[in-house]
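2024-03-11 09:14:02 INFO worker-7 job=invfold-0412 stage=load source=structure_tokens
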């Protein structure tokens, strides 16, 4: 928490449109906002719910309630939401309206227009595609698919898998028989990766991330718990459960070399977020499963084994809570890392932000969060100083 806070306050920027080009909301729309709720997650599409007051009034009241007939607020319209922290806009949503509701006035309240929607991954999930991707590695397939959505304001961020085998067209050809979104997610899961949209880097744009968690980069502003006036996270609960961690193995006859071998990956690639991996503390007592490796090479089987261990261990420690964004003076974003302090030696340090929910109302802004990691104890004895990125 900044000692001086944010003298310019926190403001919301909403943009609407009927296509990729979005324009800022007019004053009458901003004044009509009753509440805005958004949920952003690394595991599923982001969603939003916007409630607008829509009582009749003025000389045009006989023509109908405001917003009801406006195409910007109908199914298919687009919306982008950013929070302005001082002078810096932080995108928190970019998506489509998929449903609109009109609630006429009654004795308890004025009329309401309720807009519900999802992020732009909805565009990738509408058409099932039957095609082949000869001689392309998974990350190159992901880039080729995402290039089709550049005109929608979607920027790809694709990282190569840690373990993969370059497809040989003589031997096999990757086949897509699913929507683009489903195929991107299937490829990501097979490599221990995540595939989802996140808002930004600029208002009205999105980045499709295909890679491991967390996104490479500096940690976000540190969360402080039970530190008196420096506290900005409240209602914190820590759940430590590594019982689901699974070691996957298989017997493989490598189709390239003919060698018969046992494949099981004993550890995880990538940079850890804590000092002691939870899977290592349970060595000898992990859940074990065998998977069918018929037709796989040894490298492909190793990728499956690694992905399974990664998937089941990344949320061994989960932290949930709420932040007051006025005190936090920033926006907590999913996919990225954040330090948390004041929760004890075993649970302090770096985490990946797996999910956030924004609750925005006139005069109030808060977030609930879900953090995760697969290790115990911090990598450093103290939380490093915060770095202000301009």
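2024-03-11 09:14:09 INFO worker-7 stage=emit residues=390
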């Amino acid at each position: 928490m900044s000692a001086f806070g944010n003298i310019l306050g926190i403001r919301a920027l909403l943009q609407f449109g009927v296509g990729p080009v979005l324009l800022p909301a007019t004053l009458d729309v901003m004044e009509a906002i009753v509440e805005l709720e958004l949920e952003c997650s690394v595991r599923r599409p982001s969603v939003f719910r916007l409630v607008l007051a829509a009582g009749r009034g003025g000389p045009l009241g006989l023509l109908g309630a405001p917003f009801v007939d406006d195409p910007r607020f109908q199914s298919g319209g687009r919306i982008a939401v950013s929070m302005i922290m001082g002078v810096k806009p932080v995108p928190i949503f970019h998506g489509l309206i998929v449903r609109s509701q009109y609630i006429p006035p009654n004795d308890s309240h004025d009329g309401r227009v309720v807009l519900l929607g999802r992020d732009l991954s909805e565009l990738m999930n509408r058409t099932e595609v039957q095609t082949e991707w000869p001689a392309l590695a998974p990350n190159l397939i992901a880039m080729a698919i995402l290039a089709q959505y550049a005109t929608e304001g979607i920027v790809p961020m694709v990282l190569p898998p840690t373990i993969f085998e370059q497809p040989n067209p003589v031997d096999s050809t990757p086949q897509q028989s699913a929507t683009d979104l489903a195929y991107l997610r299937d490829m990501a899961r097979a490599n221990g990766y995540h595939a989802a949209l996140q808002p930004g880097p600029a208002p009205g744009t999105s980045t499709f991330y295909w890679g491991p968690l967390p996104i490479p980069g500096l940690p976000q502003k540190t969360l402080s718990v039970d530190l008196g006036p420096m506290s900005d996270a409240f209602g914190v609960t820590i759940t430590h459960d590594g019982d689901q961690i699974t070691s996957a193995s298989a017997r493989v006859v490598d189709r390239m070399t003919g060698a018969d071998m046992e494949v099981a990956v004993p550890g995880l690639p990538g940079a850890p977020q804590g000092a002691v991996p939870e899977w290592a503390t349970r060595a000898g007592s992990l859940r074990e499963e065998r998977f069918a490796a018929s037709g796989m090479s040894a490298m492909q089987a190793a990728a499956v084994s690694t992905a399974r261990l990664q998937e089941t261990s990344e949320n061994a420690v989960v932290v949930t809570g709420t932040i007051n964004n006025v005190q936090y003076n920033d926006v907590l974003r999913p996919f990225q890392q954040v330090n948390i302090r004041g929760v004890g030696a075993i649970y302090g340090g770096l985490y990946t932000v797996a999910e956030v929910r924004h609750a925005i109302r006139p005069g109030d802004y808060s977030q609930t969060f879900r953090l995760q990691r697969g290790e115990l104890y911090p990598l450093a004895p103290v939380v490093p100083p915060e770095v202000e990125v301009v």
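2024-03-11 09:14:09 INFO worker-7 stage=report msg="The first strand starts at residue 10 and ends at 17."
2024-03-11 09:14:10 INFO worker-7 job finished
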